[in-house]
Design a protein that fits this description.
The chain is α+β, with helices and mostly antiparallel strands. It folds into two domains: 102 residues, no CATH class; 47 residues, no CATH class. Helix content is 42%, strand content 12%. The chain contains five helices and five strands, in the order E-H-E-E-H-H-H-E-H-E. The strands form two sheets. The chain has a three-stranded antiparallel β-sheet. It has a two-stranded antiparallel ribbon with strand order 4-5. Helix 3 crosses helix 4. The chain is elongated, with a radius of gyration of 25 Å. The termini are far apart.
Length: 154
């Protein structure tokens, strides 16, 4: 089974937005439907043109740049020099993977006291037991996490 290709509307491209970095990550003239074969533009009903890029390649390129000239150049490169295209795509994939892994590192909760990631959630049972034993003097009232390194709770 062939990977789905990206299509575009030449009319909308000529008369539309020149940069596709927005919330949708795709301008109206690029059409990246995963399980649908569209023949006409949903905005102007003119015929769509198939690109050389697959949807996966298109999405990878969007992480690098949303500039339509860059996307067109990558599409042309795939048609003219597949070896160079694959080298560039390999570099882009590595860059995207690095960006994603650094974003995931930033999502890891850290202790606000010592910056450690060695933390645990305070269970409702543990919090309840502490409150039952110590009452209003419990360190676990309104706390959700405890650091295993320094013992700080927050």
């Amino acid at each position: 089974m062939n990977a789905p290709k990206v299509s575009y509307c030449p009319y909308c491209k000529e008369h539309g937005v020149q940069n596709i970095e927005d919330d949708l990550r795709c301008a109206p003239y690029y059409s990246a439907y995963y399980n649908q074969e569209k023949e006409n533009c949903k905005y102007c009903n003119r015929p769509l043109v198939k690109m050389n890029l697959t949807v996966f390649e298109f999405n990878t390129i969007l992480y690098i740049s949303g500039d339509s000239a860059f996307i067109d150049a990558m599409d042309e490169l795939k048609a003219k020099d597949i070896i160079e295209f694959n080298l560039k795509m390999s570099q882009f994939k590595n860059q995207v993977n690095q960006q994603k892994s650094s974003e995931q590192e930033n999502d890891v909760p850290r202790c606000p006291n010592c910056n450690s990631t060695n933390i645990k959630s305070i269970s409702g049972l543990s919090r309840g037991a502490s409150i039952a034993m110590l009452g209003i003097f419990s360190k676990k009232i309104n706390k959700s996490f405890e650091c295993k390194n320094c013992g700080y709770t927050w």
